[in-house]
């Protein structure tokens, strides 16, 4: 069976005025480096919207859905949930697999 890359687009809608705080905390906690070093992580990049000052897009690419599922169970993801609770109003997910 052929392994399929797993891509996930995550749109974060920050609480008003909290986008920069969200991004700063991801960097200063070391969370981004930790996630990017996880087994199977090929891409974990954030992009800021120029049209919506409270929107951030995360593009994730994993070797497989299984790798991404393991990622979500890592202890450091508790830090991500804490940061999101403080700074994020809502999240939208779009996922797809590519050969």
Molecular structure report:
The chain has 99 residues and is of the alpha+beta class. 35% of the residues lie in helices and 37% in strands. The chain has four helices and four strands. A four-stranded antiparallel β-sheet has the order 2-3-1-4. Helix 1 runs antiparallel to helix 4. The longest helix has 11 residues, at 77-87. The chain is globular, with a radius of gyration of 14 Å. The mean pLDDT is 93.
Write a short abstract of this structure.
The chain is built from 4 helices and 4 strands; from the N terminus they run βααββααβ. The chain is an alpha+beta fold and 99 residues long.
| Oligomer state of the chains in this structure | single chain
- How would you sum up the global shape? globular
Structural class: alpha+beta
Largest sheet: 4 strands, antiparallel
Global Rg: 14 Å
Number of helices: 4
Mean pLDDT: 93
Proportion of helical residues: 25-40%
The number of distinct β-strands equals: 4
Termini separation comes to 11 Å
- The sequence of SSEs as H and E is EHHEEHHE
Low-confidence stretches: none
How large is the share of residues in beta strands?
35-45%
Major sheet strand order: 2-3-1-4
């Amino acid at each position: 069976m052929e392994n399929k890359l797993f891509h996930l687009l995550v749109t974060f809608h920050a609480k008003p005025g909290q986008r920069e705080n969200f991004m700063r905390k991801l960097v200063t906690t070391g969370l981004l480096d930790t996630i990017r070093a996880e087994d199977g992580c090929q891409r974990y990049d954030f992009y800021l919207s120029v049209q919506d000052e409270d929107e951030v897009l995360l593009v994730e690419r994993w070797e497989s859905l299984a790798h991404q599922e393991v990622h979500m169970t890592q202890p450091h993801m508790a830090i991500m949930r804490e940061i999101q609770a403080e700074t994020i109003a809502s999240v939208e997910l779009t996922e797809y697999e590519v050969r």
